[in-house]
Structure formats: C-alpha cells, structure tokens
C-alpha cells in the first residue's frame, strides 16, 4: 500500500514518461484499501476527457 504522496508521484511519473502506454486504475475490492494499476501497450489509443 502506498502513501498518498508516493502514489500520486508514481501516477505522475507514468503519465509523464509513457509515450504510448494505456493505464487503468481501480480501487481494490478486498477491503484492504489501495489501488490496482494496470498497463498495456497500444498502438492507437485516444484519451477522451
């Protein structure tokens, strides 16, 4: 489990340094808290905001 500031730093690093990686983040459902980070390389990925 990451501390809040460390978790934010990891996400910022991934977003800033990934050229074509998709990232998925979801909360753990087992009651322990924390997040699960999934990554996958994609050739054509659109970020919709």
UniProtKB/TrEMBL annotation:
Protein name (Swiss-Prot/TrEMBL): Uncharacterized protein
Q: Give the source species.
A: Pinus sylvestris (Scotch pine)
């Amino acid at each position: 489990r990451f501390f809040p500031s460390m978790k934010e730093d990891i996400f910022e690093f991934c977003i800033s340094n990934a050229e074509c990686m998709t990232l998925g983040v979801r909360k753990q459902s087992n009651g322990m808290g924390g997040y699960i980070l999934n990554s996958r390389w994609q050739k054509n990925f659109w970020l919709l905001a």
